[in-house]
Structures are given as structure tokens and as C-alpha cells.
């Protein structure tokens, strides 16, 4: 059977282009990140060979498992999953160029320590919980500025943007509120002129809501299902895991 990845990719790129056009934005103002959790390396390879350059993984284990097959094809990997502090050392082994899910100070401090030790730097996005759901990771919107001020003091971390997962809802206006909130936080942070903080990227929008996210200013959309098909694991497996330990910390 033909791999539908190529057709799906074409369709997603069309959706992104149409959404940009409808919002009066240049077509190249939105970058596609392939959300590749559970997707086997050879199917990711198909997408990379078709010209894609950015993937996002949720688990260090998966990055490790796919590393060898993918390393011959130039691309960037962003970490988009919940990151436990005991996985920091591992995630730094695999050429991850940005951690989009930085959402708490203890993680930032431990990351900073490790990067300093290795003499390296890392781009990060601050993940914000714009839907106010307990099941989602991310710093509370009202805590974002405070966290960013603290992360800005970490010399080896470079804050490049914000990331969020919108509310899962058929009510588009409720979804839109999440994205608008993230954009508002970006504007607020930029108006503070915090040294070392360059809030250019807004990573928001997925298979079901990328048009709304683009209307509200997304610069990166993260798409999995619409390209690679349904996953067998529920997303709660990726998004709620470790929640208990997070509440303790
Ligand atoms: C899985 C995932 C996506 C992609 O979601 P789809 O609905 O499959 O497009 C985006 N962002 C994060 C953080 C994810 O875990």
C-alpha cells in the first residue's frame, strides 16, 4: 500500500498556505513541525525526504530509537513533551535544538546546570497552560512572566518563544481564546524588554485547530494525526504522565 504521508503533507501545506492567505500573512511566516510521537522512523524519513525539516518528539526514548535512521537526513528536532528532570542528561545526547516544553523553574535550573557543565546552550520555549485544564502541562498564564524572568537569568538557556496546546473543543471561540491568550502573553513579555529574551515564536495549533492558531499569530504549527494518521495510544498517555510527581514538586 502507498504511504499516504506525502498526500497528507501536501494537504497540510495547502491548509497552512490558505490560512496564511486568509489572515494576510506571508506563506513563509508559519513553519510546520511534524509531531512524530509513535510514528516509526521510516515514515518520518518519508516526510523528511519530501522536504520537511522539523520534527517534534514527546519522549526521549523515541528520539533515541529513531536517531540512527534519521541522522543521515538533515533536520531539526524539538522536544515537545513533558520533560522530567531525570531525563535531562538523555535529551541532551540527541541533537535536540529546542525544548518547547519548559514550564517550571526546577526544570530550568537543572537544565542550566547540565548545559553549563557540557559548555552548551539551548533554545527554549515556555509552555503555557492556556486552557486551564489540570490535564495539561504548562505554567499558569499569570505565572508566565515570573517564570520567564527567572529563566532569563539562566545563561545557557535562550528563550525564543511560547508554546501551548489549545483546548480540545468543538467550540472554536473557546479554542481561539487559548491562542489569543498566548499571543497576549507574548506582547506583554516583549513590552517588558527582558534582557536575553527574544519572543519571536508562537508554537500553537495542531491537526484540528491550526487555522485558528494561524489567525491568532502562530509561527509554528505542530501536526501529527493529519499527516501520519491516528495514534494507537491516547494522548493522555503523553500529556498526563508524571502529573502526580509534578504536583509534588
Ligand atoms: C501530539 C502532539 C501534537 C500533534 O497533535 P495532532 O492532533 O496529532 O496533530 C502537537 N503538540 C504536542 C505537544 C503533541 O504532543
TrEMBL record:
GO molecular function, one term: pyridoxal phosphate binding
Gene3D superfamilies: Alanine racemase (3.20.20.10)
Source organism, top-level taxon: Bacteria
InterPro entries reported in the protein's UniProt record: Ala_racemase_N, PLP-binding_barrel, PyrdxlP_homeostasis
Presence of keyword Thylakoid: no
Pfam family of the protein (one): Ala_racemase_N
Key words of the record: Pyridoxal phosphate
Alanine racemase N-terminal domain location: 32-230
Entry keyword annotation includes rRNA-binding: no
Residue numbers carrying N6-(pyridoxal phosphate)lysine: 37
Cofactor: pyridoxal 5'-phosphate
Coiled-coil ranges from the UniProt annotation: none
NCBIfam families, A to Z: YggS family pyridoxal phosphate-dependent enzyme (TIGR00044)
Family as reported in the entry's similarity comment: Belongs to the pyridoxal phosphate-binding protein YggS/PROSC family.
HAMAP family in the cross-refs: PLP_homeostasis (MF_02087)
Function per UniProt: Pyridoxal 5'-phosphate (PLP)-binding protein, which is involved in PLP homeostasis.
Protein name per the record: Pyridoxal phosphate homeostasis protein
Species whose genome carries this gene: Dyadobacter soli
Lineage: Bacteria, Pseudomonadati, Bacteroidota, Cytophagia, Cytophagales
